[in-house]
Amino acid sequence: MLVSGNTQSIKGLLIGGGVAIYPHGWTSMEVQQACGNLSGSYKFGTCTFYWAFYLTAGGAALTLITAMFSCCASTPKRDRPYDDV
């Protein structure tokens, strides 16, 4: 479980990193033609984020949260008063 939790947290960090650097590409000519010359790195111009960006960011956050659950689940429990139930 610890290996899968660590792998999952690495995946969450990679997805989150991709979401964080995604607006850096707005300096390209295609984006400036579509969003106006006001767009730049981390500047919207006339464009906006749509639901896919927010869902990806939320998915990255949920991946990191579930990775924490997985790492916590793999720790050995010393005291189990309800083992016989």
Descriptive tags:
85 residues; mainly alpha; 0% strand
Strand and helix map with partners:
Layout lengths: L1 H20 L7 H7 L15 H23 L12
Helix pairs in contact: 1-3
Could you explain the architecture of this structure?
The protein is an all-alpha fold and 85 residues long. It has one domain. It contains three helices and no strands. The chain has helices at residues 2-21, 29-35, 51-73. α1 packs antiparallel against α3 (51-73). The chain starts with a helix and ends in a 12-residue tail after the last helix. InterPro entries: LHFPL. Keywords: Membrane, Transmembrane, Transmembrane helix. It comes from Magallana gigas. It is found in: Membrane.
Q: What does the main sheet amount to?
A: none
The number of helical elements comes to: 3
First-residue to last-residue Cα separation: 24 Å
Question: Count of DSSP E strands?
Answer: 0
Mean pLDDT: 83
Query: What is the rounded Rg?
Result: 20 Å
Short summary of the structure?
By secondary structure, the chain is an all-alpha fold.
